Amino acid sequence: MKKLLIFSILIYFALSSFSQKDTLDYTIHKWNISEYQNKIETPVDTFLEGFQIYIPIYRNGFSQAYNGNAGQAHQNNYFLNRSEHPFYFLSPYSGYLFTPQNAPFYNTKQAYTVFSYVTNFTKSNNLQNVDLLHTQNITPHLNAGFQYRLLAADGEYNAQKASNHFFRAFASYENKNYEAFLVYNYNKFNSYLNGGLTSDTILNNPYNASNNTKLFPVNLEDSKNSILGRTINLKHHYTINKRINIISTDSLLSLTAIDSTDTIMPIRYLPVYKIGHELNWNYNKRIYTNKGSAGYYQQYFQEQEAITGSFAYDSTGYSNFNNTFFISLVDDSTNNKLPSISIAYENSQEFFHSYMNTQSYMHHSVKINFDNTYFDKWYWNFNTKYTFAGGNAGDFNIHGIAQRFFGKKKQHNIRFEPLFSHTNPNIFTQFYASNFYKWEPTFNEKYALTTFNFAYTNNKLKLELGVKQAYLDNYVYFASKQDSIWIDANTKGYDWVHGYPFQETSTFGILSFYLNHKFDAGPFHTRNSITYQKLSNDSVLHLPKITYYNSTYFTMRFFKRVLDVQIGFDLRYNSSYLADGFIPATGLYYNQYDKELGNYPYVDFFVNLKLKRARMFFKFDHVNKGFSGNQYYTVLYHPMNPRVFRFGLSWRFYN
After folding, report:
1. C-alpha to C-alpha distance for 368 and 200, rounded to whole angstroms
2. Three-state SS for 8?
3. How many helices (H) and strands (E) does the chain have?
4. DSSP 250
5. Rounded distance, CA 646 to CA 505, Å?
6. What is the Cα–Cα distance from 423 to 392, expressed in whole angstroms?
7. What is the rounded distance in angstroms from the CA atom of residue 593 to the CA atom of residue 541?
8. Nearest 5°: phi and psi at 70?
9. What confidence tens digit (pLDDT) does each residue in 475-512 have?
10. Parallel, antiparallel, or unpaired: how do β-strands 412-423 and 396-406 relate?
């Protein structure tokens, strides 16, 4: 009743905007900042399409394997879009993070605020998703703002609750020659990790299919994961303008300053120099506690007393401090004949901590970037980083883009994008110690990743298709090994233990095809995305061959075209494969070889509405539950939520 009252009040205020004039799009600008501090303009999110997608990870990839509850660990089913965090234990949460790379900056003539809220009426599987953004210009040159997000969900099953908090404060200063961008990010994950159901056949029981899911037996009832991440990032640069005029003197051309009183000929733009600096501080900590786990963790514990179910506490930490200095020579002419060239030096200090083990490293790197758009027909970029001294000496990364545009309005293009990466495996895969796990393998070789991406895009047809070929050498993965275990309180034996790191020293490949297409015909709209992946070695990496997403909806307009309505459904599907298992003690995924998961469609039905500054959705998640079988798992022993109703509201205002 309380939620219904709150939501009714929010709808009332949203409807009150019916008669208000909406001129927001003309008064606000939004952008992100690139590595070399160029602005990447992004639209203010007022779109109705996709509004019903309220779990952040699905905005970073349409096919995800995750532990069944919003806010829990996940990984992208499309391997080449996965990301690895320097603090390795944050990698399964990368789709939720506030980072310097996705930090927004604004310039607005009026204060701008967006409030979003997603929940459900029922007490079971309670979800609270709150997002509040506020920004305003303090002066014409100075903007500041903050964003807070709460993603809390009880989960459908026992001991699965997640309560995650995200906050960032940002500020930007822009003047003729000097610009600065500052952001502070705070990410806090708190969740119970129940280890999944005790059996993957529980959902097959007709009695269980309609019973209280909170009564289903789980492996762990008091297993808690807490991860804290903080970052401070400052980017600032000074620009030296070199615009000069061409002067005619005695039939000879000479170059003088723009304020010359001689006869002025056409202006010529010489390159612009940009001198910049970036400071980045990052602090991360993971705490894992467990109580009463005898029978599940018995084989993992390193200390005999732990198998009695006594309390266990593990702490792991990581921090780094980076300084990057760069100078850019930017072509500011109208024909863009000259490339933009940037050279940077980066100093990085890293600190690692796990049980009874602390290490620190310093790295020195040089970076070079070439960037050019030639006569509006070609775009190319070359970006490289080489670490010449320190713990990661010899690491390098080379990335390039060559893009050819066609048509008067660049309606279609072809793109070639190679990548060559040669890096040390993450330090936490090379040493780790806790009450549960201990490893220190010998990884003598650097991990090498080579990819080639060929893509074609047609904006008129709303079509993108491409092929990627990747080669992986010395790939590090997690799997099972035979190790000593406690058979009882006084006896040791040997058995398979899951979740240890290994390195595959042979080279193997991934061939993938992808297609994204949107079709519109009057009120009918359908969006399709499909990927195909084929592995040359499927013993060290497990991926679904096919992943597919479809969103189909009809649009309608009411009340003199003021109220926009979308009615449709989302469908997600991946083919059957050996989906990964999950280890709560480390919070990482591992290769399992026992059971294939997948070949199950997930269908969501939604209604989206937009009225002036307000957007709303009403959604049934997993509406086909019970009609397509009951094997709705994307991670071993971790079922997805059954059918559940959600609703959400987003309201933007400014004054």
Report:
1. 51
2. helix
3. 3, 38
4. T
5. 47
6. 7
7. 11
8. -60, 135
9. 999 998 766 555 555 655 556 678 899 999 999 999 99
10. antiparallel
DSSP symbol at 51: T
Q: What token pair was written down for 509?
A: 């490949």
532 Cβ contact list (under 8 Å, min separation 6): 512, 513, 514, 545, 546
- Mean pLDDT calculated for residue range 429-433: 89
Distance CA 539, CA 480 (A): 12
What single-letter DSSP state applies at residue 292? Answer: S
Return the pLDDT at 12.
52
Which domains occur in the chain, in start order? 2-654 (2.40.170.20)
Q: Which residues contact residue 419 at a Cβ distance below 8 angstroms, ignoring those fewer than 6 apart? A: 397, 398, 399, 400, 449, 450, 451, 452, 453
How many other C-beta atoms can be found within 10 angstroms of the C-beta atom of residue 562? Answer: 12
State in Å, rounded, how far the first CA of the chain is from the last one.
Answer: 32
Sign of CA dihedral 396, 394, 390, 317: positive
The rounded distance, in Å, linking the Cα atoms of 429 and 88 is: 8
Answer yes or no: are the C-beta atoms of 589 and 92 closer than 8 Å.
yes
Q: Which amino acid is at 443?
A: F
The CA distance from 137 to 106, in Å, is 8
- The residue among 395, 509, 411, 511 whose CA lies nearest residue 453 is 511
- Give the pair of three-digit tokens for residue 534: 């084929």
Give residue for tokens 């850019």: 328
Beta-ladder partners of 130: 117, 150
* pLDDT tens digits, one per residue of 125-173: 789 999 999 999 999 999 999 999 999 999 989 999 999 999 999 999 9
Rounded Cα distance, 517 and 219, in Å: 42
The reported pTM is: 0.89
| CA neighbor of 589 nearest in space, from 160, 88, 238, 173 | 88
19, pLDDT greater than 60: no
User: What does the DSSP assignment read for 25-50?
Assistant: GGTEEEEEE-TTS-EEE---S---TT
CA–CA distance, 283 with 127 (Å, rounded to integer):
29
Residue 105 CA to residue 42 CA, distance in Å, equals 10
Helix (H) or strand (E) holding 167: strand 162-174
CB atoms inside a 10 Å sphere around CB 68: 22
The residue written with tokens 């997000």 in the block is 149
List the structure tokens of 76. Answer: 């992208």
Q: Are 465 and 514 in contact (CB under 8 A)?
A: yes
The DSSP secondary structure of 547-594, one letter per residue, reads EEEEEEEEEEEETTTTEEEEEEEEEEEE--B---EEETTTTEEE---S
Give 202's pLDDT tier (boundaries 50, 70, 90): confident
The residue type at 320: N
Segment 309-332 mean pLDDT: 86
Euclidean distance between CA atoms 60 and 75, whole angstroms: 10
pLDDT given at position 256: 32
State residue 262's pLDDT score.
37
d(CA 579, CA 635): 6
Type and span of the H or E element at 15: helix 2-15
Give the angle 36-39-43 at the CA atoms, nearest 5°: 145
- Chain position carrying tokens 């070609």: 378
